[in-house]
Amino acid sequence: MVKDEDLTGKTPDALLVRRARDGDSRAMDLLVRRHHGVVYRVAFSVLGDRDGAQDVAQDTFLKAFRGLSGFRGDAAFRTWLITIATNEARGVLRRRVRRREIALDEASPLAERGPDPAERSVVADEARRALRLLERLPEKQRLAVTLRVQEGLSFREIGDAIGSSEGAARVNYFHGIRRLKEWMDA
């Protein structure tokens, strides 16, 4: 049974996964609460659509818990979830292309706290601009940048998540960052 002190992250994911395999719904709930943010952000990075990202996050956890018996633990549970989320979001994109759907809403401005409202406005404008430019990157570069900058994943974990080698993940990240810098300076 998951205890309240487990909410602080003291219980390793591996133990929670074992408990979830045994049907412990509190362990499943804790895994969702721990990893929902990263799964959502990955899906949003691929789709650029809040509602679609939320749907992908939900589908990711459903798929993960249904397939929990097949999780071997070769990678971290978080990395496995990111891989599922990436694949789910790519599937949504493929279906959209076939149906020619488009996302209607844009990324929300980042809430920045600064001492000066004018400064906050400039920072928010630059953040929105960076998000728009990030969307222009090829998918693997966009994911590599997002997973490295926002989630702090290693290049090995990024490679696992996007289906490439560690070296390719590193190259995608650096090319993506270089392009973003060039575009931001233009």
At the fourth CATH level, what is the homologous superfamily of the domain at 1-105?
RNA polymerase sigma factor, region 2, helix turn helix motif
Show unreliable segments.
100-114
Taken in chain order, the helices and strands follow as HHHHHHHH
Content-based structural category: mainly alpha
> The CATH topology of the domain at 1-105 is what?
Rna Polymerase Sigma Factor, Chain: A
CATH architecture of the domain at 1-105: Orthogonal Bundle
Q: What would the principal axes of the Cα set say about the shape?
A: globular
* Assigned CATH class of the domain at 1-105: Mainly Alpha
Average pLDDT rating = 83
Number of helices in the DSSP assignment: 8
Write the layout of secondary structure elements.
Elements: H1 13-21, H2 25-47, H3 50-66, H4 77-99, H5 117-136, H6 139-149, H7 155-162, H8 166-185
Helix pairs in contact: 1-2, 2-3, 2-4, 2-6, 3-4, 4-7, 5-8, 6-7, 6-8, 7-8
Features:
Rna Polymerase Sigma Factor, Chain: A, globular, 186 residues
Explain how this protein is built.
The chain contains eight helices and no strands. By secondary structure, the chain is mainly alpha-helical. The chain has a domain at 1-105: RNA polymerase sigma factor, region 2, helix turn helix motif (Rna Polymerase Sigma Factor, Chain: A). The longest helix has 23 residues, at 25-47. The radius of gyration is 18 Å and the shape is globular. The N and C termini lie far apart (55 Å). Residues 100-114 have low confidence and may be disordered.
